[in-house]
User: What shape does this take?
Amino acid sequence: MNLPNVISELVKTQNNFDSAAYAQCFAETAVVFDEGKTHTGKKEIEQWIDKSNKDYKATMEPVDYDEKENILSAKISGTFPGSPIILKFHFEIADGKIQHLKVTE
Assistant: This one.
């Protein structure tokens, strides 16, 4: 599977539970939508993923990538009910950084 560099880096930092490095994959004004909530800017994104890492200890295993639509399907395993689950990560990428991420089932 041929992932853009920034998505490969995002997966690596998630699996290392490195919230600061994870946030560096995003543009300064990036927006993340997950679990009905919107997180705007690197600082909020880092706080969101840090809390998620502590609460769920979730790891990502890419299973498919739609290059045309920039959608990564990944098996997410962690300490949450229903684990593992396949989630879709809808990316907008510009200048090597994630501008927008929406997580769906």
User: Anything to note?
Assistant: The radius of gyration is 12 Å. DSSP finds three helices and six strands in the chain.
